[in-house]
């Protein structure tokens, strides 16, 4: 496995475009798996998505993640990785679903990843289309409080077998591919 060279005492610095502990933990856990011999420092910051509070299309969701990561890159101190996650929903031919996009920037390179889809009941999608946010709809349906900073809709709808953090971690592990295999992505003579 190829790793990015770091000269500053094997320390990996990550800035996450959110103060949500679920997103911060997912970024730290995913990236730390690629650097088991390094100290991984991860901190969150408020980063505007510049899209709707509840993105309703794949394109809007992806743009929100990219906007957050770019904001971190421009506003935060120097870091090895700028990471952002944006949850959204869309209505596919097979029905409504929620998912998240990941954006990771390192050394000026942007990598975009995406989680799996979680099918949503039509009643939930209709509430979102009417202007509500997924976390609030879930809190009302399941009598929870601030579920988006815990297991999320994913945790509630999968009986805890998957959580918002586990899904984000998996998608981030995949989105790291261009950085951990940089020679494959930079070599055009395959």
Shape: globular
Strand content: 15-25%
Order of helices and strands: EHEHEEEEHHHHHH
Average per-residue pLDDT, rounded, comes to 92
Instruction: Note poorly predicted spans.
Output: none
Separation of the first and last Cα atoms: 18 Å
Number of strands: 6
Task: Output the radius of gyration.
Answer: 17 Å
Mind summarizing the main beta sheet? 6 strands, mixed
The number of helices is 8
Structural class: alpha/beta
Oligomeric state of the chains?
single chain
Helix coverage percent of residues?
Answer: 40-55%
Helix/strand layout:
Blueprint: E1 11-16, H1 21-34, E2 39-44, H2 58-75, E3 81-92, E4 95-106, E5 109-114, E6 118-119, H3 122-129, H4 134-142, H5 152-157, H6 164-175, H7 177-180, H8 182-186
Parallel strand pairs: 1-2, 1-3
Antiparallel strand pairs: 3-4, 4-5, 4-6
Helix pairs in contact: 1-6
């Amino acid at each position: 496995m190829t790793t990015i060279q770091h000269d500053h005492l094997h320390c990996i610095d990550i800035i996450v475009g959110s103060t949500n502990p679920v997103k911060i933990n997912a970024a730290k856990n995913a990236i730390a798996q690629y650097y088991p011999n390094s100290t991984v420092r991860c901190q969150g910051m408020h980063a505007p998505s510049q899209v709707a509070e509840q993105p309703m299309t794949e394109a809007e969701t992806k743009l929100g993640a990219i906007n957050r990561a770019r904001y971190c890159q421009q506003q935060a101190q120097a870091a090895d990785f700028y990471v952002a996650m944006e949850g959204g929903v869309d209505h596919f031919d097979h029905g409504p679903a929620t998912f998240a996009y990941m954006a990771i920037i390192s050394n000026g390179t942007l990598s975009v990843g995406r989680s799996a889809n979680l099918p949503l009941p039509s009643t939930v999608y209709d509430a979102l289309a009417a202007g509500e946010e997924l976390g609030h709809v879930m809190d009302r349906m399941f009598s929870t409080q601030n579920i988006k900073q815990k297991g999320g809709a994913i945790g509630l709808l999968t009986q805890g077998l998957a959580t918002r953090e586990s899904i984000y971690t998996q998608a981030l592990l995949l989105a790291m591919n261009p950085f951990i295999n940089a020679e494959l992505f930079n070599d055009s003579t395959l």
